[in-house]
Design brief:
It is built from 12 helices and no strands. α1 runs parallel beside α6, α2 packs across α9 and α10 packs across α11. With 263 residues, it is mostly helical. It has a single domain, classed as ABC transporter involved in vitamin B12 uptake, BtuC, CATH 1.10.3470.
């Protein structure tokens, strides 16, 4: 029989995959990898502020991640060089968060749990937050799917179809903030972007339609979560990084077969 904490961890990984599959596909299509990284790094600052003001960590993470995502989106419309801007904001938020945590009085914080995740410590209450947030994001993307896809393909095509591309981009931005908030305990701030990008990148080769890629990315994320947990249990390795390593292995296999199979 599986231990109770392993069941909760497996459910957390599968629940998160429901959101990171379709959302990660848009991150790959829109080349938003660094954008996701900056939002995830800001989560540590959210943790620090939540501890300072005695607020729920998930709420603090969500607020700061959303603020970072909105700030980056605003700057991108003002003609800033985004690679440099994202680099500055990402690392500044991470460093500021780490420094701020050290000033929280009377609180001992395991930073590794926030940086690399602590999926084995997920509680049933955490599961409710993870599944609720992931389900909300997945439902929102499903509802806006055709509009999001059109805005991703071409802003001109979106305008001709009566679709506000900026509004659809804002929906993705806020969805990313929600995923960062609920994923913090599963894989940590440093690995959230990896779980957004790697399953979607692995699904890109074999997929022949956008919908197929989104579903396949979710399945790959779920399988990587289960495989990573199994490896962590067997070899006593960190669970969060083990999940990302499993996803990376799936990506390598997918890339190899995509090269071997005729197009």
């Amino acid at each position: 029989m599986l231990d109770d904490f392993l069941i909760r961890a497996a459910l957390a990984g599968v629940g998160l995959s429901i959101a990171v599959g379709p959302l990660g596909s848009f991150v790959v299509w829109r080349r938003m990898a660094y954008f996701g990284d900056a939002t995830a790094h800001a989560a540590i600052l959210g943790v620090a502020l939540a501890l300072i003001f005695s607020a729920p960590v998930t709420l603090g993470t969500l607020v700061v991640a959303a603020a970072m995502a909105l700030a980056v989106s605003w700057l991108s419309t003002r003609g800033h060089a985004m690679d440099a801007t994202l680099g500055v904001l990402s690392h500044s938020a991470l460093a500021l968060g780490l420094v701020a945590i050290s000033f929280v009085p009377g609180v001992r914080v395991d930073l590794s749990a926030f940086l690399f995740g602590d999926i084995l410590a997920v509680t049933w209450a955490d599961l409710a937050v993870i599944w609720g947030g992931a389900g909300l994001v997945a439902a929102l993307i499903a509802w806006r799917w055709s509009r999001l896809l059109t805005a991703t393909l071409s802003r001109d095509l979106a305008a001709a179809s009566g679709i506000n591309a900026d509004r659809e981009g804002l929906i993705l931005t806020l969805s990313l903030a929600v995923v960062v908030a609920v994923a913090l305990k599963v894989v940590g701030a440093l690995l959230i972007a990896a779980m957004l990008i790697i399953p979607a990148a692995a699904a890109r080769g074999p997929a022949r339609a956008p919908e197929t890629m989104a579903v396949l990315a979710a399945l790959i994320g779920a399988f990587a979560s289960l495989a990573g947990l199994a490896a962590s249990y067997q070899f006593d390795t960190p669970a969060g990084p083990s999940i990302v390593v499993a996803a990376s292995a799936i990506y390598l296999v997918s890339a190899l077969f995509s090269r071997l199979l005729p197009s």
